[in-house]
């Protein structure tokens, strides 16, 4: 851009730039407003794709072959936990070099929009299938060496800003006294579902020691992943939400084929028992997330995968209070135990349109959005909250140019600050890794372009009024 055109563009944005200059020491609300502003495209045209000069892939580290001897060792989660529970001293982790997501999640300025994806470690990746074709799901989850490899693979392929630990929301159920397993053709199934309030006698109230012992394999995978990432990306831990976990405990299987009829009926018929169970699950989730931070998680997310199965009034009664309690209690517990204060995120899948306003008033740092809510509406309902999401995953089946167009539209709507790019749900096993990579590239390239041009225009406006 020439000096003349730069000054001309600066003149067009003079009013907005003067407003920015007048807010040298803005209040928290004002800061949020500035960060959410969308840059208008009367600047040098964005060329898109790799032309933006943003490198996608980090050097790949292929350890699959050398690890086979270790990975073939079969062991149960509980037996392995007994081997690792004695490790009390916190490891010394590598310094975080890429803190982009941490800065975004805590409302700090970022030079571009950070990105990660739900289910980014999945069967769409050939390197993932190298493990999934050989080892059953539960073996992959409960073997820290495998879980670590699967956690880190997407960061090595795409240079993502975060890795989310390879695990499952249901690993907490056995600690609560509820056994489950994978059934071919049906997915996760609970062996003995809860059918009545009398069955609550089977539900355990785990202690911190129980979490450490029973889920030691998750903690070891977190620690190994944090070491293996070597500061390249933020490590995210997670848990299922109370309502979602209750849903599996009562329904006995996933909601996709059942519409959660039995689980919802339990809420209607036995509300007192439901609240009692939700409270027990909430306490367990808090303990679990705190232990994940101790093991190396630098951010944690609560997945309410069944949120969309509830009516708005049901969600307000049986999910929202417990979700809010988790964020508050996790932060207090981290403080009490002298652990790092990490960002906490929540994903109320399918309920964002009616849940966001309430969750915006919670202690969550980030609310992750599904594709069912318009970004502009989300910003209006949660002006001071960091938002995450929400590209419709089906767009990733379309040609690269279409992916780029919709990614740009999403970023224009959310703005480049107080925002983490993600999908409105998850990467599907049938997606093309190259097209998934196009989405990642476009987020990086386009958001960098917007930020760089905004900086140029602001500097020109400053010079104009000096």
Automatic annotation (TrEMBL):
Uroporphyrinogen decarboxylase (URO-D) domain boundaries: 97-446
Subcellular location: Cytoplasm, Cytosol
Molecular function (Gene Ontology), one example: uroporphyrinogen decarboxylase activity
UniProt entry tagged with the keyword Cytoplasm: yes
A biological process from GO: protoporphyrinogen IX biosynthetic process
A single GO cellular-component term on record: cytosol
Catalytic activity: uroporphyrinogen I + 4 H(+) = coproporphyrinogen I + 4 CO2; uroporphyrinogen III + 4 H(+) = coproporphyrinogen III + 4 CO2
InterPro entries xref list: UROD/MetE-like_sf, Uroporphyrinogen_deCO2ase_HemE, Uroporphyrinogen_deCOase
Leader sequence segment: 1-19
Keywords: Cytoplasm, Decarboxylase, Lyase, Porphyrin biosynthesis, Signal
EC number in record: 4.1.1.37
Pathway annotation: Porphyrin-containing compound metabolism; protoporphyrin-IX biosynthesis; coproporphyrinogen-III from 5-aminolevulinate: step 4/4
Keyword Cytoplasm: yes
Protein family according to the UniProt entry: Belongs to the uroporphyrinogen decarboxylase family.
Function: Catalyzes the sequential decarboxylation of the four acetate side chains of uroporphyrinogen to form coproporphyrinogen and participates in the fifth step in the heme biosynthetic pathway. Isomer I or isomer III of uroporphyrinogen may serve as substrate, but only coproporphyrinogen III can ultimately be converted to heme. In vitro also decarboxylates pentacarboxylate porphyrinogen I.
Subunit structure: Homodimer.
Protein name: Uroporphyrinogen decarboxylase
